[in-house]
Amino acid sequence: MDLDLSFLPLEIIGQVLQALTFLGAAYFALLSLSLVVWSWNDIRARSRDIFARLLAPLMVLVFSLPGLLLYFILRPHETLAEAYERELEAEALLQDMVEADVCPECGHPVEPDFMVCPLCKTDVRRVCLSCGRLLELHWSVCPFCGQSLVAEEMEELGMAVGVRDKPVA
Predict the structure, then answer these.
(1) What distance in Å separates the CA atoms of residue 110 and residue 108, rounded to the nearest whole number?
(2) How crowded is the C-beta side of 160, counted as CA atoms within 13 Å?
(3) Domain final residue, candidates 82, 116, 140
(4) Does 133 reside within a domain?
(5) Is 5 part of any domain?
(6) Are 113 and 156 part of one and the same domain?
(7) Residue 23 burial by CB count (10 A; 0-12/13-18/19+): exposed, middle or buried?
(8) What is the span of the domain harbouring residue 41?
(9) pLDDT tens, 72-97?
């Protein structure tokens, strides 16, 4: 089955082919431009190096689809935001390791439920008189019951003074 185009004048066939060629070229140009813009935005998210930021879109512009494939092979594996998150996670892990419970006097590791250092007998925690839970020495309020520890110590001190000031009968 042959396609018979003899009923169309050659001028119309030429114009149609010319229009299709123009549309194909325009499509390829827009595709190339969009790939260049995409590679520009992608490399900006992945690198601070000005040379890489200029080379990546230029490579895609000059070599088109093979340039894009080459860019995919050469581009950094993680974005700057991903690298920053990874560094923050590592820093947080290191911070947790550094802030392990140790005696402020001798530096010996102490368990979270120790009141005194077993090595040098230095106080590392105190007991809340209201709820009986262990508290850090530098806390001014019990986070478990809300009792003000400064007032608690004053009451404790006042009771001790009051007991001493009472006349003996």
Answers:
(1) 6
(2) 5
(3) 82
(4) yes
(5) no
(6) yes
(7) exposed
(8) 10-82
(9) 999 999 999 999 999 999 998 887 66
